[in-house]
Amino acid sequence: MRQLALAALILAVSGACARPASHPEIRFVIAQAPLSLDPRYATDAASERVNRLIYRQLVDFDARSRAIASLASWVRRDALHYRFSLTGQGRTFHDGSRLLAADVVATYRSLLARKDAPHAAEFANIVRIEAPDDDTVDFILSHPDEQFPARLIIGILPARLIAAGHDFAHHPVGNGVMKFRQWNRVLKLERIADHQLFALEEVRDPTVRVLKLLRGEADILQGDLPPELVAYLRQQPGVEVLESRGTNFSYLGFNLQDPLLKYPLVRRAIALAIDRQALIRNVLTGGSRSAVSILPPEHWAGNADLPLLPYDPQQSRALLAQAGVGLPLKLVLKTSTDAQRVRLATIMQGQMKPAGIDLEIRSLDWGTFYDDVGHGKFQLYGLTWVGIRTPEIYRLAFHSRSFPPFGANRGRLQDAVLDGLIDRQDWPAVTARVRELMPYVPLWYEGQFAAVRRGIAGYRLAPDGSWDGLALMIKRGVPP
């Protein structure tokens, strides 16, 4: 019934799919606009996805998330010394200047100079950065780090513009496959290879995004749709729906400084009060699957031995009683105003009732929500880690030195045992200890999907939901 009503609404508003106008641009409707096009300080998913197109970084990753050369290859000269040699590709900035070792040095030195930068904790091990010549960069570390190259995924900026205080956040100058054109209400990019133009427009309402696609006002949308809208799009003759398994990790975060949530028994009780399979089945798209930890089992540092958490409201009640918590346990969950997130929270609210948990939902605009999470102004919150490739995420998310603004330990977890395991890079033990402490509830790895209009070809989905497929897609002329 819900799907039929939705279809009727779309048909009524769309005028049965009006004839598309002719546009040279490829128009991409997105749920959330990027917040910053400066790769040194961007943390939201949209910003990181756009920045991967505008900039190139020293290092990228293969299919198993192992570090491979992008702008530079590297050798480990000794335990504390990595030497990076710039390759011949991607060495031209969009303003025409040549990318040199000095630009790499300036980019990373500017990160180190700001101790409150969101990525600062990842580079705290760097003692100095030097450029022996225009093609060589040396990183000297304070202690050995076998995973160090995998950290170097920040887009490289021109040194002279860094020195001039250029506003990269709104006027980026990169060296990637896309060149920045303008950003008013709509972000305009130009593909370097063939000058194809792209327009990225924020449209928060999922139904409106679908309408724009059907009316020819958009060529592509990706993610952030409820399953009934995806099912509806599959039935449309002028639309192709693409789906694949994903790796982006959704979780429920706890404030461990809260008087009740500081107890592991209470956190585990909440985890057992959530029916992940029902949420995946009723709200998420194909390719989504239950999660056990941040990194999926197929990742080289994943832990396939961790069991899935069951839905067991009776055991949840028993744990709350063991912890001495009176029922109902009243909690507040903060989330964004995104319709999909609110819907997930609402279903979760109903699932928790049999366990004696009374969940209040507070949906906030993205800026307010993200600020509250960063400043610890929450009991529970829901977020997704996007594009995570290395196990260093455990240092960023759980090390006691990674409290915001120096990292993303938003729950304020402090555990000396876990710190030691992270410092030793014993990732199986780290994931086991995180499961024991339960600073979050692992929910699912989100499946990926996109919908494209007839005439769009070559777009490929990535497991992490990146928009890298824009680099290859084409728009053919389609007769009306």
Automatic annotation (TrEMBL):
SUPFAM superfamilies in the record: Periplasmic binding protein-like II
User: What compartments host this protein?
Assistant: Cell envelope
One of the record's GO molecular function terms = peptide transmembrane transporter activity
Q: Which residues form a coiled coil?
A: none
> Solute-binding protein family domain location, by residue?
73-388
Q: List, in alphabetical order, the GO biological process terms annotated in this UniProt record.
A: peptide transport
Entries under InterPro entries matching the protein: Peptide/Ni-bd, SBP_5, SBP_5_dom
Q: What is its main location?
A: other
Record-given protein name: Oligopeptide-binding protein AppA
**Species per Swiss-Prot/TrEMBL record:** mine drainage metagenome
